User: Which sequence fits this backbone?
């Protein structure tokens, strides 16, 4: 089945230690998104790629970076995680920006 | 700023219809109305979307008020598997297509 895959499902890191979350898709979609979701809140868009074009949300901290080396993969790098960065990180894809988004299961990040 | 307002939670009985309301009084003429739901421990999934006319699909129906300042997601016959958080979202075409998420309604289904 075509899908959006996130690895790992659970990630534990230490305060200030860089961490990378990964997302892959078999849908061949143009757009890939990264969302942050904290407990009992709606997902918050961090940034997205339309093909190779990177689009950062205005209020996304500089601590968050992303890479998309090819159509299938997208990475979220957190350079110096703080306690406030503990959250669920969701990857999503869509064919075009106005199309339905397909979400992965998320990676739950714990910062010790 | 465009935003949506939803009740925090709703309860319904299994096998009965559910009407989930959403207010979006600041909607602009070209904003789409989307609904996604998020089951426990899963990523959100698309439910339905519309612009002006009512919409039906295999999952649900979307009823949009004539002035577009509110909409209602209708689950025709709720099952226990429909227990989830339902998000009402505005889709806005700026330089990029932007989804403006509401806070969501937690739907509880009673057997």
Assistant:
């Amino acid at each position: 089945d075509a899908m959006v895959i996130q690895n790992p499902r659970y990630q534990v890191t230490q305060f200030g230690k860089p961490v990378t979350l990964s997302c892959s898709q078999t849908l061949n979609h143009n757009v890939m998104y990264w969302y942050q979701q904290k407990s009992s809140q709606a997902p918050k868009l961090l940034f997205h790629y339309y093909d190779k074009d990177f689009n950062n949300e205005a209020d996304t901290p500089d601590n968050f970076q992303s890479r998309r080396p090819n159509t299938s993969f997208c990475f979220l790098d957190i350079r110096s995680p703080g306690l406030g960065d503990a959250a669920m990180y969701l990857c999503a894809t869509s064919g075009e920006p106005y199309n339905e988004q397909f979400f992965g299961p998320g990676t739950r990040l714990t910062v010790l | 700023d465009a935003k949506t307002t939803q009740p925090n939670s709703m309860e319904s009985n299994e096998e009965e219809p559910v009407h989930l309301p959403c207010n979006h009084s600041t909607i602009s003429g070209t904003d789409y109305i989307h609904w996604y739901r998020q089951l426990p421990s899963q990523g959100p999934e698309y439910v339905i979307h519309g612009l002006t006319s009512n919409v039906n699909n295999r999952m649900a129906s979307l009823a949009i008020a004539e002035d577009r300042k509110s909409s209602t997601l209708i689950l025709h016959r709720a099952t226990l598997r429909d227990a989830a958080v339902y998000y009402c979202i505005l889709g806005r075409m700026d330089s990029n297509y932007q989804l403006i998420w509401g806070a969501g309604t937690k739907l509880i289904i009673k057997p």
User: Anything to note?
Assistant: The two ends of chain A are 36 Å apart (CA to CA).
